[in-house]
């Protein structure tokens, strides 16, 4: 995927900007894209917020979610393993780092899901390349320069960059825009470290309305102009949100605590931004890991717990979810300097009132390591992203498949996620849309192993009324438009079955 500014779209945006920022870009309708129904523009759930914490450096998963009852763990780490008497007990023989007291309290309240052994095939151990893989949603052998969140935001804001949304489409607390938010239409995020300083920096700055030259350098200049235009538009919005918003309690004085404090003010101040990115570094623990790792998880735990209580106090917690990720885990065996080197699979945390709570997946298997002596992953990280996009942010399965160029089964992270971990062979059929249907309805289904399928309409007595679609289908997501004209008003069943014995049924109401 190549990141280049769509020149026609950029020139159109410059034409809009030439009218002046004072008219308010958020009111421009972007007629070039037409009126797109919500379900076709990403089907996003209004008000849902995803807060991502990037754990920079490669978090040691085995000392975060600890197999403290496994003798192999202690044998591999004679100097840095954490004994179960010191750790915080979870479930199925696993323990949480003793510094993560606030997270443990949230876990006990059912507000933390922990997905174990998340990774991908042929993992890369370079900080830079591995971070790019996680940010883009690619596999180890594919180079993309668009972020998975950028591709999601492109579906949510189809008029960008011709028209900018009323509120920032994504916010990153930091100084350099992450690849996570890049797309072939440009970057979707607004990046700053302090709302007031950001406003002071761009306050009074006019939009540059000169059309760039039709050259490669002109295209690069177009990106810079686009960023500048968005900054001018959003500086006041962000400042006003931070001023109107509040913290219901004091935040920790750590940098991560400060970042969460800002996010709290922006959300409570009325910003409709769906994705935030926060950062905490220091996880490259090659030496003297115990103290450094303990301080890091104390910092995360305190900041996250404060934010959750704050959002609950302000009646905002039902629509917010926090997700952590790091570019890789660490080696199973400790090294010679009381630390750990770059490894593979690791756990991911999901915090909020909409999660199922508890551990997801089997414990790390220290008896069956890969050829390098590292952990084997159980679930692909793109399964996690697909679950977040669909079950938290409300994206449909077809667009989720398009974001990753493949179909990934979801994990039971949220209360509306699948009830169980995916099996070796499975299919998925989503509810028809619209439902009830008066004219036609869209049927979407996913195939996770090549199979012959039958998609059919049945009455409530089990009689097949119409074979809608059939044949051999490869792995992927599919959509079929079904005309309901000619069928009597009432309740029907849509059934998807395969030659492998799988069957999923959804109810359809025809008006």
From TrEMBL:
**InterPro entries, alphabetized:** DUF1501 (IPR010869), Secre_tail (IPR026444), TAT_signal (IPR006311)
**Where's the Secretion system C-terminal sorting domain?**
433-510
Question: What Pfam families does this protein's entry cite?
Answer: DUF1501, Por_Secre_tail
| Domain of life according to the entry | Bacteria
NCBIfam families to which the protein is assigned, alphabetical: Por_Secre_tail
Do you know which PANTHER family this protein is assigned to? Answer: BLL7424 PROTEIN, DUF1501 DOMAIN-CONTAINING PROTEIN
Can you say what this protein is called?
A: DUF1501 domain-containing protein
Species assigned in the record? Aquirufa regiilacus
Higher taxonomy: Bacteria, Pseudomonadati, Bacteroidota, Cytophagia, Cytophagales
């Amino acid at each position: 995927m190549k990141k280049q500014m769509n020149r026609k779209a950029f020139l159109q945006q410059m034409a809009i900007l030439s009218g002046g920022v004072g008219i308010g870009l958020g009111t421009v309708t972007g007629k070039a894209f037409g009126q797109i129904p919500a379900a076709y523009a990403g089907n996003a759930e209004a008000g849902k917020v995803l807060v991502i914490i990037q754990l920079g450096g490669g978090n040691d998963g085995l000392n975060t979610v600890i197999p403290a009852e496994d003798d192999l763990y202690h044998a591999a780490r004679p100097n840095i393993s954490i004994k179960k008497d010191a750790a915080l007990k979870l479930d199925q023989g696993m323990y949480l780092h003793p510094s993560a007291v606030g997270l443990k309290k949230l876990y006990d309240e059912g507000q933390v899901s922990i997905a174990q052994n998340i990774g991908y095939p042929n993992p890369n151990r370079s900080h830079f390349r591995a971070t790019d893989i996680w940010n883009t949603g690619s596999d180890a052998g594919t180079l993309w320069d668009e972020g998975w969140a950028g591709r999601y935001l492109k579906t949510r804001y189809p008029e960008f960059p011709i028209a900018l949304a009323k509120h920032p489409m994504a916010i990153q607390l930091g100084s350099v825009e992450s690849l996570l938010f890049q797309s072939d239409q440009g970057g979707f995020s607004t990046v700053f470290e302090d709302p007031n300083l950001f406003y002071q920096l761009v306050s009074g700055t006019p939009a540059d309305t000169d059309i760039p030259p039709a050259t490669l350098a002109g295209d690069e200049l177009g990106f810079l102009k686009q960023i500048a235009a968005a900054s001018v538009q959003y500086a006041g919005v962000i400042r006003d949100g931070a001023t109107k918003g509040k913290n219901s309690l004091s935040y920790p004085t750590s940098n991560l605590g400060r970042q969460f404090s800002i996010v709290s003010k922006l959300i409570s101040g009325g910003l409709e931004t769906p994705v935030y990115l926060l950062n905490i570094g220091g996880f490259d623990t090659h030496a003297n890991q115990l103290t450094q790792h303990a301080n890091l998880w104390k910092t995360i735990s305190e900041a996250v717990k404060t934010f959750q209580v704050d959002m609950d106090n302000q009646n905002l917690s039902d629509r917010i979810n926090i997700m952590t990720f790091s570019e890789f885990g660490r080696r199973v065996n400790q090294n010679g300097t009381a630390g750990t080197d770059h490894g593979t699979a690791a756990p991911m945390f999901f915090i909020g009132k909409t999660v199922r709570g508890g551990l997801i997946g089997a414990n790390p298997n220290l008896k069956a390591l890969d050829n390098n002596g590292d952990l084997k992953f159980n679930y692909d990280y793109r399964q996690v992203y697909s679950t977040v996009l669909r079950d938290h942010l409300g994206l449909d399965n077809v667009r989720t498949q398009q974001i990753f160029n493949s179909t990934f089964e979801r994990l039971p992270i949220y209360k509306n996620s699948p009830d169980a971990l995916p099996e070796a062979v499975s299919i998925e059929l989503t509810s028809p849309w619209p439902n009830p249907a008066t004219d036609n309805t869209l049927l979407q289904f996913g195939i996770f192993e090549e199979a012959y399928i039958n998609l059919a309409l049945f009455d409530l007595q089990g009689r097949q009324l119409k074979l809608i679609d059939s044949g051999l289908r490869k792995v992927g997501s599919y959509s079929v438009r079904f005309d309901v004209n000619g069928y009597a008003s009432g309740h029907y069943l849509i059934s998807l079955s395969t030659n492998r014995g799988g069957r999923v049924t959804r109810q359809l109401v025809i008006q």
